[in-house]
Specification:
This protein is mainly alpha-helical and 498 residues long. The protein has a domain at 433-498. 83% of the residues lie in helices and 0% in strands. It has 23 helices and no strands. The chain has helices spanning 2-12, 18-41, 45-61, 68-83, 87-108, 120-126, 129-145, 149-165, 169-185, 189-206, 209-225, 229-246, 249-266, 269-285, 289-316, 323-347, 355-371, 375-391, 395-411, 418-431, 434-450, 456-476, 479-497. The radius of gyration is 27 Å and the shape is elongated. The termini are far apart.
Length: 498
Amino acid sequence: MYEQLLQERSALQVHASSYETGREAQIDALLLSEIGWTWYYAADYEHTRQCCERGERVLRQASVNGGPAWARLYFLQSYMLWQEGKYDEARHAANEALHLFEEMLPEQRHQHGNAAPLTRMRRTLEGDPVDVARTHRLLGALASSVGQLTAALMHFNTALSILEEHDHKREVAHVSCNVGYVHLQKAEHEEAQLFLRRARSMAEQIGDIPLTAVIYSNLGVLTERRGDLSEAENWLKRSLALAEQTNDQVYLSTRNVILAAVYLDEGRLSDACTCIGRALTIGRSIRNAPCIGLALVTLGNLRIAQALETQAEQTIHRNGTNSSESAKKQERYRRYLARAGKTLQRALTFDRLEAEARNRGQLASAQVSLLQGDTETAQVQALHALKKAQQYELTWLVARANYLLGMIMSAREQQVVHQYFEQALQVLRKCGMRLETARALQSYALVLLQYNETPEVSRQQALSYLQEALQIVYECHATLDQQKIEGIIADSTFDHGA
């Protein structure tokens, strides 16, 4: 339709004045940007890029050096570059768009208030504050991707202020979802829930299916963080069902990864493997580096879970297992860890990974090194991950890094152990992250039990932590965690009795 309109307009622009030529060139460039958006939503970034280049040629041929059409092209380019993981280039393009959109605003103030309503394209040509808000929203999303969460909130709040002033409910719903997601990254779960509920109410009211799918996914992450795995699974399945309606390939890939993480928590490793396979297939088909990298990080975590499952089986059945079977399971354990390490190493070579995904991959790599007995490498990796988590304001990953460092320091027989666990537990309890709290308690208890001369009071404290952790994972239906903790309790009781 847009292509046909362009052809019809071209036939009419034969004897236009230079002013009219410039004006018409901007309209043509805006039409080309709309064609570009159709390719963008199909995850075809090559055709998106071609539309942008055509639009630029049209503007240059008409000697148009600035204005809203250039701004719209920069805006589209920024979205495309973002999805390709080129965050610096995307931010540069978005800032160019913002500058040009803002330049138009003084002109808009002189428009007559009783003028007839304008189409979106005409509003852009006349200078539309909503275009400024949309660009702030984009800059917020880019800042969130690279771990600049405070800057992200600043951009989102600016966008919200403009959109609420102009009563753009659909856009307000989108930005509310963005704000909720940033609070989710910062582990500010009460604030996240507030904004996500607001976004959900508005999105369902106006019937915005793609946005509703994103909100359901974020609610799934929120409930998973709080340890309600069955509800998280339900939200994510609803999100995937909606994403399939719109055939959004990027969201189909990322939502499969998030669902896989819930399955890992539940101990459903086969289901997790299926979801990761789907995510990787989609990511590779659309050549989306952030999607592929995210799926590989989760695949690495699956390999770690498979290794720990093998270890737990060996512990549970050790009395009825002969030496040959035990050796096979030990070899399988080592093989899973080796595969995990290679997968995570490959994932971290993607320089287009988003900040949170990269940080989770770094922590998983440190865990693999620890499980393989390479405590020196594990310490270096974990300290680096801790520094990055602090830099990116990823509160819950700071806590995870702290209790992982506690385990590493203990394995290296260093004394600064307790403070790491205590800091982690304080943060995780405050954030209401029940399953992560249980894992920190389990790790702390193991450290307390492994001292050669642990006083009875420390042993009792360790068992208390294990009982608390066991209660949490039982309520969360986290099967693998439950098996592991039960094995630790059985071992510690047996050893003490012996």
